Amino acid sequence: MSIQRAITFISAAAVAVTLLCSCTFPTRTGYDRSIGGYKPVAQANNGAASTESGTAAAPATPQAAPFASEAAQSRTSAGNVKAAATQKSKPEPPKSRGGLEQYANAWLGAKYEYGAASKKKTDCSGFVMQVYKGYYNIALDHNANKMYKDPRGSKVSRGSLKEGDLIFFGSFWSIDHVGIYLNGDRFIHASSSKGVIISPMNDKYWSPKYQGGRRFK
């Protein structure tokens, strides 16, 4: 071995011994592609807390507040909708219909038409049927004779009639007309000649045809 090679070998050995004794040889903590080698211990430990510029990265702040606010707004909206629905579901107080005569007067002047039952055109049983359904919520047949024989109705004597009782006219063999008794010994009915009118019970035409009264209330 030449003197020059011997000197080179001795120098390399001295450097190696110095590095081993000083414990500065970097520990392999993991390969990093960005630096093309293994990270030193200090770099590896601080890597999670350092950015590429060497400044500490701020911890991520959870975005809970916005979501909590949205949830609160959603609950508030749901509460408002529920409150509105509750207010809507409350039954409205019934509107005053006034007395029976006031209610039935809405048909006054309607023309007589057989088989009809409206406030413009009606026959006698159609008129009574509509008033009883609308005012008393009692469904009756569109036929005077069937109303007279309806088992739900109780017989009422001439002197015991009260407002709302049904009064029937005809002959011994059949019932062909019906009206509604009103206070003051009157009745409202659909006359074939005059339409819906109010007549006195002692009317010369109707009084002899009176066949009886029925009470359904």
Average pLDDT: 75
Output the structural class. Answer: alpha+beta
How do the strands line up in the largest sheet? 5-10-6-7-8-9
Give the percentage of residues in beta strands: 15-25%
Q: Which consecutive residue ranges, at least 5 long each, have pLDDT under 50?
A: 15-28, 43-62, 64-68, 83-96
Helix content: 25-40%
Profile the largest sheet: 6 strands, antiparallel
Overall geometry comes to elongated
Secondary structure tally, helices: 6
Count every beta strand, where a strand is a DSSP E run of 2 or more residues.
10
- Listing every helix as H and every strand as E from the N terminus to the C terminus, the arrangement reads HEEHHHEEHHEEEEEE
Q: Report Rg.
A: 52 Å
Task: State the separation between the terminal residues, measured CA to CA.
Answer: 139 Å
What does this protein look like?
The chain is of the alpha+beta class and 217 residues long. It has helices at 3-22, 41-46, 64-89, 100-104, 124-136, 144-149, and strands spanning 31-32, 37-38, 111-112, 121-122, 154-156, 166-170, 175-182, 186-191, 195-200, 210-215. Strands 5-10-6-7-8-9 form a six-stranded antiparallel sheet. A two-stranded antiparallel sheet has the order 1-2. A hairpin with a 4-residue loop joins strand 6 and strand 7. The model is unreliable at 15-28, 43-62, 64-68 and 83-96 (pLDDT under 50).
How is this fold's topology laid out?
Layout: H1 3-22, E1 31-32, E2 37-38, H2 41-46, H3 64-89, H4 100-104, E3 111-112, E4 121-122, H5 124-136, H6 144-149, E5 154-156, E6 166-170, E7 175-182, E8 186-191, E9 195-200, E10 210-215
Parallel strand pairs: 3-4
Antiparallel strand pairs: 1-2, 5-10, 6-7, 6-10, 7-8, 8-9
